[in-house]
Predict the 3D structure of the following.
Amino acid sequence: MASSKQVSVLVIDDNDHSRRLLKEILDSAGMSVRDTSDPHHALSVLGTAQIDLVVTDYEMKPISGIQLTQRIRTHPRPSVRRCGVLMVTAYADRKHVTEAARAGIDGLIGKPFTAGTVLERTMNVLERAAARNVDAGQKDEDRRYVGLDD
């Protein structure tokens, strides 16, 4: 896997406070972080930039994090389909976690979160995405991972 200084992250959250906090945490780890409150703008960025990791909120308008993840996983660019997706949510019940996993996330963080949890889950997701890219012959679904804070 690339060092954290080479990791490109796109944070999508329509809550300004959460988005800024996530950006600060990932910036502090030396990652190159872009952020937006607009899921449609995020899809535009993904269509033109090389992004290693998407961090998205579950509940957004006009499209949800679930819908955004589904669009990422069916994107025409293979590099977009294979990027890591980490979802942040206040909905940590089985129904919502299952829905997120089926959409194609690689990891999940429950709110409220700590910087340590964000960085730990980020590294887990990046490792899984790197393995998926190396082992492209294996089905992507076989490498999905969802973790919740205890």
Observations:
- Strands lie at 8-12, 32-36, 53-57, 84-89, 107-110.
- Residues 1-5, 137-150 have pLDDT under 50 and may be disordered.
- The helical segments are 16-28, 39-48, 65-73, 78-81, 94-103, 115-134.
- The two ends are 27 Å apart (CA to CA).
